[in-house]
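Sample A.
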Amino acid sequence: MLTIEEFKDSENIKDIFIAIGASFLILLISLTIIPFFIMLIPCPLIVLTVKRGYLSGLAGIIGTSILSLIGFDIQLAFIVFTYLMLISLIMAYMINNNYKPSQIIIISAIGILIFVVLNTVFIGSLNDMDIVTNMENTLTNVIDSELDTLAKSGISTENIDELFGSLKKGLDLFIILTPSILTVFSFIFMALNYICSTAALKKLGIKSIKVPKLYEFEVPRTAIIGIAVTAVAVFILKLLGFKFYNELMLNAYFLFTTLFLVNGIAFVDFNLRKRVNLIIRIIMPILLIGILNLTLFYVFLGVLDMIFRFRHRAKQV
């Protein structure tokens, strides 16, 4: 535990200011250039907390929140404060106590879901609005604006109506999948936070931690039981006339598909790790999935790897 005298130490104060500056810089980058960077704000404060203790970490969180309040507004300051409190301190505590990487990522992902709920309630009550309805209205307005632009360009009404129908279906699907999308991105961002933080801690010589690699990710065979239980539960809910049966089924499908997609990417990465440059290994799945639309190929590989445990067998050879 850090004492008051140690807290006042000039080196500790210096580290606090560096962490605050780094976190606020990440915030500025996320608000101006790369939006998803906002999820990486905790990294400098996680490193600070592990190195200097929870009192210093708390000081860094408060400092970053105050800068957010001065530079922007109370809503953003509240979002930054709750996010950093939930993620920085929780992740730092688990790193200090040598939790497994999977435990840290899962618990932190739950923390970020709590953060989303808290901020949705806070912003909704502050502005007296329904967040989901507001999001749907915003996306609908964007679609309408784009369709108006197309109408002015001379495209036939029939084609515009057809396009509107497709976009509306896509919007409805996005709204339905919001819970599972939030869950998936929570795990992704917490994994990135953990990897970046542990890499920094190791690089700075603060704590020797094995940084997890993508190719080490494996879906256990017990996932089959999870899928079976989920399928039975959803079927029972259908028989009982559960109102949101279709929405629940789509979210479950999305989550399991994403799980096997990541497993497939990890399987390919495992086989390429000794022969292909890291940059190419990062770019390749992005191109194959984003441009060539080979998502199902990776999902298929992920399912096969889970069933037959190809990587486990390769390690034994």
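Sample B.
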Amino acid sequence: MKIVNNVAEIINSTTIPKNSMVYTAGNASTPQVLLRQIIKDEQITSIDLLSLLLLGDIGELFAPEVCSRVTHRVLFSGEHSRIALNHGMAAYQMMHLSDIPHQLKNYLKPTVVLLTVAGPDNGGNFSYGSTVEGLQAAVDT
């Protein structure tokens, strides 16, 4: 396991190159530190970011200057994405929640997945946390 001291080591334009399809965990499992690095790193451009109800201190992710380099594809809107959606700076990716795994595996095929994990437990297993709607399918692609 690699210990990361600076998030820029793992979230940058080399690890998330142009034309990447990025799926991010959402709800209580929103990887805020990773998303804030996307906000900061202006070299990360021309990516699609698939998200489902992002929570936490990441409102700047939907600011016009970030939306000019990140194409937001929102599966479920929340406080942060609503204004961007209403002003055409983000787009709904319409589908039923139960269809997310199928769509990710067969059509959207993310090339990068942003998530946080909890653990390891006594058996050495990690947990994706409280969001499971499509995370395993995204990781499997």
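B remarks: The longest strand covers residues 70-76. The beta strands are 21-24, 47-52, 70-76, 90-92, 112-114.
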